[in-house]
Amino acid sequence: MPNLRLADLTAEIDANVRRALLEDVGSGDITAELIPAERLARASVITREACVIAGTAWVDAVFRKLDPRVAVHWQVTDGTRASANQPLFHLEGPARSLLTGERSALNFLQLLSGVATRAQALADQVAHTSVRLLDTRKTLPGLRLAQKYAVTCGGCFNHRIGLFDAFLIKENHIAACGGIGAAISAARRIAPGKPVEVEVESLAELDEALHGGADIIMLDELSLNDMREAVRRGAGRAKLEASGGINESTLRVIAETGVDYISIGAMTKDVKAVDLSMRLAL
Fold it and tell me: CA dihedral defined by 230, 235, 236, 239, rounded to 10 degrees?
């Protein structure tokens, strides 16, 4: 599946920001009203820790929607590796608007940069191999496309976006369809041209999926030896994806089995937001 591109996310960013401002600002920022409306200010945002940046377009959209008079001056771009205490961007405009937009803007930037940072750390571990690390559907509700975009900023890749753009035939689907071959055949009839992936739990099921013509075969918690054997059997016949319980301690050795993909739900599910700070100057 192709990676998300920022150019395709304009409507999504607008919707994300609209919801964020509605829940945070609501009927108005009563604390910001303490400041005279005509007062102008500047602000700088830094990261307190090393990170990979993602989410600049969401920050721009927050201030553009809140107050077009606010100017955002970036010192980094998405995908930049920033060091601790490095300035990320500066703001100029009405003091009220800078303070009202601060939390929503930083929420997007710290979360998405957290995803990108985690993705980059994982990608660095397997850079010596040809494996591609994939995200999953384990994302925050309402922010799937944003998180999946952040994954690409960290050097990893997108799996299917949802239930609509590719088949992923798992144990229960197989049982309900009457077998792996029958499930693959049904998928080809229902949506010709859509990628068909099948989850297998043994080498015997792998052989069934290969015989049925699956495009991608997910190896669910197979042993390292079985993964190596699967790579040998599947060479030139299907792409292989390792999945299930994979973490930093097992990632490298699994990548070295020769599988094409490794999917890691923790890349988006267990993300830690980056520590950012804004300072205002009147």
Answer: 40
Q: Residue 77: name the closest of 89, 86, 90, 68 by CA.
A: 89
What does DSSP assign to residue 198? E
In angstroms, the CA 2 to CA 24 distance is: 34
pLDDT in tens, the chain (282 residues): 789 999 999 999 999 999 999 999 999 999 999 999 999 999 999 999 999 999 999 999 999 999 999 999 999 999 999 999 999 999 999 999 999 999 999 999 999 999 999 999 999 999 999 999 999 999 999 999 999 999 999 999 999 999 999 999 999 999 999 999 999 999 999 999 999 999 999 999 999 999 999 999 999 999 999 999 999 999 999 999 999 989 889 999 999 999 999 999 999 999 999 999 999 998
Q: What is the DSSP letter of 164?
A: S
Active site residues per annotation = 103, 138, 170, 199, 220
Q: What is the DSSP string of 73-127?
A: EES--TT-EEPTT-EEEEEEEEHHHHHHHHHHHHHHHHHHHHHHHHHHHHHHHTT
* 198/272 Cα distance (integer angstroms): 31
Distance CA 75, CA 58 (A): 16
Distance CA 268, CA 150 (A): 9
Nearest to 155 by CA among 61, 53, 229: 53
